[in-house]
Amino acid sequence: MIENQFTIQDAKNKSLRLRAERMANYVRAQIVEAISDEHDLYYLFFYKGEFLTAKKVTKLRRHSFIETAFKHGHVYQSPHPFMNHLLTSNHSAKIINNKQLLRKLNQHYSKTEKAYILTFFESFISKKQLFEEIKDMFYEDRRGGQLFTAYQLIRILKDFAPKHSLVKSLSSDLIYKDFAKMYRDRDSELFSQDLIEAEKIMFHEIETCQDQYVQHLMTENRPLELSMLLYEQMKKAPSSATLDLLHQTLQENFTDNESVQLLERLAEQVKFASLQELLLKKYLDLKQIDRISLILLETEVDLTPNNLEQLTRSMSEISPNELNMQPEALQNFILKLLKHNPSKADPLLTKCLIKLLASTELNDVNDWIRPFRELCGKTKAIEQFDKMFNMSEDLESMQPLGELYFEFEQWDQALECFSMESELKPDAAKPLKWLSKTYLEMGLKDESEAYQKMYVSVQKQA
Known about the structure:
The chain has about 450 residues and is an alpha+beta fold. Among the domains are: about 1-120, no CATH class; about 125-205, no CATH class; about 400-460, Tetratricopeptide repeat domain (Serine Threonine Protein Phosphatase 5, Tetratricopeptide repeat), CATH 1.25.40. It is about 65% helix and about 10% strand. Strands 1, 2, 3, 4, 5 and 6 form a 6-stranded antiparallel beta sheet that branches. The model has no long low-confidence stretch (mean pLDDT about 90).
């Protein structure tokens, strides 16, 4: 799929195509804002990376959960690898109505989770109705003697409707004074018994709770949220330990392409030597020569002898057409390789010249190759190019010039030279032979055979 386009099933099992705009990650919740082909606005709701449902927006309540998530959460603009990973991991997403949502919450989540999730939807379900649903769960638990669970629900209601008189009354009820003290003092018991409240604290106080939050997300096996947490921490305070854990998490749960994209996004915002070195290693493993050349051009990352050997081998395995890099980056890259291993000058420079001659003026190629003359001396590739450059304006040298273009796989230029030589010397067989060879290299067999016959005919007449 296109990175920011995806399809879900609507309530009538019809495909609904959406374009993702942005995503927020906020205390167990992920919310994706998207636009349909009809320009309707939708919000997709996820809980711990699992799709819940989507809602078409008519009006958003002020100070809603959605507003809070996009204001205080981790927000990513589309296209983004985190968003792409979330959506592709939930590729069978289907919109369900409110009754189906309640049934789903009852079947798969605890009461406190259900209450917390319900608060996501206050722009789409009456706040009064949501309040009554959570209140009913509270009274059910209180009647059943489940006082701690009941108090957890009070805490959720306190965040949801802090000014409500019932919430104020219940919050100050002396029956819950021991629980209230535990929350106030943030005892270790709180972090083991009320995980939602614990995550709220850890999310908002990440500077002091990072290790605890990381361990919690690892224990619950929530790699997407863990990756986002580590990613954000790298932006604020990069460290080798955080980077190592981020890399490990990406390796185990994301594709190679997603991992590289995320590290690249991070490198655009964070100048951290270990991050550049990691990206370089990823590029080496994936043989992404063009990306390596950019890192070497833009940063001070040093290549080890092993890196240089690996790159030289990779260069020998790719075709000139795969050298997708700007001339300056290519020049800098090849200079580093040849300073390490000058014996590879001819094959590497030949490959580069084939690529450059296809799209670059001869004068510019001549400037490009100048530092290699100083580094490598007169190699075969440099000598051939120098001959080509010196012959380029000489009508008497069309045949040898064409042969040099042929050797550098510049078929159109070679054809032009051989054709001109044939016009200047209509009785000569040699340019006809080379025209046949060139057309054959271009895959034009009929033209090649025609010039081969002309060559044989001229040979017989000689």
